[in-house]
Amino acid sequence: MTPLPAAALRQLAQEARFDLCGFARAEPIPAEHLGRWLEAGYAADMDWMGARAAERLDVARLLPGARTVVSFACNYLVDDAAAAGSPIARYARGRDYHATLRDRIRAFRRGLRARYPGVETYAGVDATPLMEKVWAVRAGLGHVGKNGCLITREYGSWVVLATMVLDAEVDAYADGMAADRCGPCRLCLTHCPTEAILPGRMVDARACLSYQTIENESEVPEPLRAALGGTVFGCDICQQVCPLNRAPMPTPDARFLPRPVAGLTARELAGMDRATYDALVPGTALARAGYDGLRRNAAYTLGAARDAGARKVLARLLGEHEPERVRAAARWALEQLDGVAHG
């Protein structure tokens, strides 16, 4: 098959509303970095990271005859003054980016098949065994910073990624990888409140606030709870302090605009009833934590912030009908308020 024209595919990506698009040869990924991360236990209980490691390292196992990996990125940073101070990470304040990127993958695939019938594809956003950051680097979209985030020249690290594998070659691949612009800077390492960011561009999920507030379904380890005073879902600290994010380029994309849930305070999130949750959370990334997870997180946040005005809502979370992880978080939070009162 004649190689597909990269310029035409970039045009299709633009029409599908991707901000960046690049191409890499579908060559296997060396196992060392992923292996070291898994062996060190940094994946916490995310067992799926190791369960399909062979497929993560060789996309030909996902799509026989794979020749090209297409990496896409969308800028999600918006002018969200209305949500300033929100305890929700920026990427999660609008429509669930998984749904947005899947819509755009489908649009790209339709355009691809219309122009080049017969090309087979495999694509995904997060949930598939595709090492998105590795492919984004190979495709020239940016470099992996010391905080483990992909950093692009155009949008900094305020991007979300999607990846597609093709069983066809393109006529132009990335001309080398993007330069590493971190230099000697260590701000992300020194500002991480739980020291989850490690040398070698590795992040220990067990200490990461994003993991604890999204993936961990039990109690947050006590040594980490005091760091939760500013977040209920996810964490942006390492991105906020990054000098490469100091000249932000907000996107006009309405799908990333904050939804009403992003305007809620930690107290309001802790005290929301099921009807409020059902009205505000579905269709956002916050659904990953669930109703009880968000209230648990909010209770920890109120305790870590020593929010004396939260005593009533925390007391309600001690009710017998509440799941134990919510009650345990509320008990801990009230202990922090009692400590202030008695200090």
Largest sheet: 4 strands, antiparallel
The mean pLDDT is 94
Q: What percent of residues adopt helix (DSSP H or I)?
A: 25-40%
Low-confidence stretches: none
Q: Tell me the fraction of residues in β-strands, as a range.
A: 5-15%
**Strand segment count:** 8
Broad structural category: alpha+beta
Work out the count of structural domains.
2
Adjacency order of strands in the biggest sheet: 1-2-6-3
Count, helices: 15
Query: In angstroms, what separates the terminal alpha carbons?
Result: 75 Å
The secondary-structure element order is: HEHHHEHEHEEEHEEHHHHHHHH
The geometry reads as elongated
Q: Tell me the radius of gyration.
A: 21 Å
Describe this structure in words.
The chain has 343 residues and is an alpha+beta fold. It has two domains: 1-257, no CATH class; 264-343, Leucine-rich Repeat Variant. It contains 15 helices and eight strands. The chain has helices at 6-15, 32-39, 48-51, 53-57, 97-115, 132-138, 187-191, 209-214, 222-225, 237-240, 266-271, 274-280, 290-304, 311-316, 324-342, and strands at 20-25, 68-75, 121-124, 142-144, 150-152, 159-166, 197-198, 202-203. Strands 1-2-6-3 form a four-stranded antiparallel sheet, with helices on both faces. The protein has a two-stranded antiparallel ribbon with strand order 4-5. Strand 4 and strand 5 form a beta hairpin. Helix 1 packs across helix 5 (97-115) and helix 13 (290-304) runs parallel beside helix 15 (324-342). The longest helix is centred in the first third of the chain and has 19 residues, at 97-115. The termini are far apart. The mean pLDDT is 94.
